[in-house]
Specification:
CATH class of one domain: Alpha Beta
Helix content: 25-40%
Strand order of the largest sheet: 1-2-3-4-5-7-6
CATH superfamily of one domain: Gcn5-related N-acetyltransferase (GNAT)
Length: 170
């Protein structure tokens, strides 16, 4: 069992650890290498976003009280009732269902607390584990944005997955 708590300064060690993880670097928009103060700036963006309603980040906390990942809404568009969601899991917590549980809680929160109608995930075409998480949480693959993402001078395709508040799995 996990729970979500809003990101705060106490989560900086978690943010730094996740940002430095090669798997997270490979499959996210986090810069490589991340600037030395990236974690602090990233956290500040989520704190500001919480205040103005444009984004929110949560630490994922397991039953032992350990910070094992993050569940994020990097973009919230209240007028359109949409958001992009994401999830990052610390290497030590992978393979335990943390990502699925975190996305499930984040999805439920976005629909019930914010009243959002459409949720989106952007997943690298090569990230098979993340696609399985999306499927388990009732997201539908809509298609591929070709050559949309550039990192380290390489272009990559990104899949769009969505879940609507009206979907059966809600």
């Amino acid at each position: 069992m996990i729970r979500l708590e809003p990101l705060a300064a106490e989560h900086l060690p978690l943010i730094r650890a996740v940002v430095d993880d090669p798997e997270v670097q490979r499959f996210t928009r986090i810069p490589v290498p991340a600037p030395p103060d990236f974690a602090e700036h990233w956290l500040a963006g989520y704190v500001t976003g919480l205040e103005d309603g444009t984004r929110i980040g949560f630490a994922v906390v397991d039953e032992a009280g350990e910070h094992v990942g993050m569940a994020l809404a990097p973009t919230i568009e209240p007028e359109a009732a949409t958001a992009e969601l994401g999830y990052l899991v610390a290497p030590s917590a992978r393979g335990r269902g943390v990502a699925t549980a975190a996305l499930g809680l984040l999805t439920e929160w976005a629909i019930s607390e914010l009243g959002l109608e459409r949720l989106e995930l952007r997943i690298s075409v090569d990230n098979m584990a993340s696609k399985r998480v999306a499927e388990r949480c009732g997201y539908a693959r809509e298609g591929v944005l070709r050559s949309v993402y550039v990192k380290d001078g390489l272009r990559e395709d990104t899949e769009i997955w969505s879940r609507l508040a009206s979907d059966e799995n809600t």
